[in-house]
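Course assignment 3, question 2. Fill in each field.
Student: A.L.
Task: Predict the tertiary structure for the chain below.
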Amino acid sequence: MPDSITDLPADMPSQNDTEPLEVDTEGAILAPPPLAVSFAELKLNSNILDSLNKAGFTKPTPIQSQFIPVALTGQDVMGQAKTGTGKTAAFLLPIFQAIKPGVGKPQALILAPTRELALQIHGEIGRLGSFLGFASITLYGGASYEPQIEALSSGVDIVVGTPGRIMDHMRSQRLDLSGIKIAVLDEADRMLDLGFRKDIEYILRHCPSQRQTLLLSATIADDIKKLAQRFMIEPLEVWTSPESLTVDSVEQSFFVCERDEKFPILLKLLEVENPELSIIFCGTKMGAKRLAEKLKRLYINAREIHGDLQQARREKILGRFRTGEVKLLIATDVASRGIDVQNITHIINWDIPYKIEDYVHRIGRTGRIGRSGKAFTFVTREEGSYLTEIELLINKEIKRVHFDDVTSKWWPTPPKEAPPEFVDEGPEPSIAQPAGDK
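Answer field:
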């Protein structure tokens, strides 16, 4: 790892034509550069700029504008960025510039908490770098080993995956990390929430010490800082929204209701709001299954997604959600990670999250990159303290709303027949999955 911004290895891109970054004693950048209006301002090479142009990318988002120049220095970087702000490209583009295609062994490693996020990152590699010649692979639990083994034996440049499956390939000596130049921890807070700390430590210990490490997280709590202290060298810090953890463009409201009052209120809310695309969050897999079944019995196109579903089924449901064929996705917190759908209009918290940081992750699914969104939370009277903690976390008062009459086209009299657009596919097939990669 270089000792300073200008002391870089010969094969690492430099920015000698830019002023050194001024940081405080903890590594936070005191005077970040102004936001760029084009990717050309970020000192990316011409091949990358051509690939971005062909992919239709012209203007960097704030996290890309702030994170990319710092990452290109070759130093370790810790970035705070919410989901939906373009953070994937923020670490992929520096990777593209730092490695070479066709070396024969992995040069970049990207760790993600869930298979959905890993697949999303892999898709972005193809979208942003389709003309650059990099070979990449996604390694995650619940998928067959054979295609992964075949791809690894053929040689890949970039490895994306969940910690559990990556460790499996390492221990079987199918995955050699000795050539890693850049290691990325994406959504590090969620990986720690899921109990991946020891896995992350094992993986990073097997990477070269002379590597660059990039860490991105929606929140930078003490456990994230402890991880950074162990495996990063004097990381620079990039904060994209230190003054507020939530999206300003999301209108946030809550209902006070008992548990047996939730369903008719939800139906009324769906009728009044008529969301274009919505995620309804439940606290448990069983709760998600039950709610989805109740909605489908009323001929509402809702599908649940959770860790017990077969992978092919999960991907099919997500595909139908992206196209709008399924308008309501019933999800648990873990299963929802990595869902990257830009036009989600509503988030509904059927169960208030008991881990208050999850509220930030949930509502971050809407109001993305300039779009507006709405978030509604159902709160029982016993759960009032959780609502207060959320308001303290986001430094904002959430407004209370209510319906004088909860009668809707679905309640108390259910519809007698399905509308033309309703598709009944029967119960969702499911299989048990190992803990961790759910």
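Instructor remarks: Confidence is low (pLDDT under 50) at residues 1-20, 242-246, 431-438. The chain has 15 helices and 14 strands.
Grade: pending
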